[in-house]
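S.,

Sequence below, as promised.
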Amino acid sequence: MKILAEAGRPGAGYAEHLRTADLSVGTYSLPAGAADGQQPHTEDEVYVVTAGRAVLWTPGGSAPVGPGTVAFVPAGEEHRFTDITEDLTVLVIFGPAEHTRRPG
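The prediction came back faster than expected:
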């Protein structure tokens, strides 16, 4: 067992807290008004919003997110947080671990 004490707490940018062959866990933080420049990932992602408010955009649609929101983004899907109205902190779970798959 390992307790990820810093996971989901506000920080700056992205901080990884755990990495195994099958998954990785980190915290992604963006201040209000920021632009999210992330690119599609080669791994599936689950986002758990721990603080803040924004909109999660994908080509298929957009959804408001806030504390307690859990969202799944499949590998390869373009996505980003927009309209960040409150400092946003998101727990990110990648499966398998981030950057372990080669771009297709």
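The two ends are 34 Å apart (CA to CA).

Coffee later?
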